[in-house]
């Protein structure tokens, strides 16, 4: 995955040790995204996903986890829109549309968090690329990739700092 995309950061890839704050967690940081304002929201959403996985375990189709996560997000009091369809543009022309699994509340109404679900044995580069492409298409800064298909919940947080025109 290293070098495949030059303007995104996988926050979990960076790790939680020293240096993360100086890269993405401070206003005016190198990546231009204040991750600290998103963290409470991403933690709550990941917590909801963990509760869903602890009850259902692995082995169901993605739609089952999507329905369960919708219930758990509402129970947590998080605003979330499910199956959000948005047009995709290329050089100013609409070429189609895609649906993301969820847009979950973020630090401001215009800054939601994209949440994409999978139910596969392991995450692959194509799943990472999908989230990165969705962040680009929707001009969103933070996305979560949640995989319910393994023995424990897998999750990755992505930060998109710049967008192509």
UniProtKB/TrEMBL annotation:
Domain of life: Bacteria
NCBIfam families, per database record: GxxExxY
The name this protein goes by in its record: GxxExxY protein
Source organism of this protein record: Hymenobacter bucti
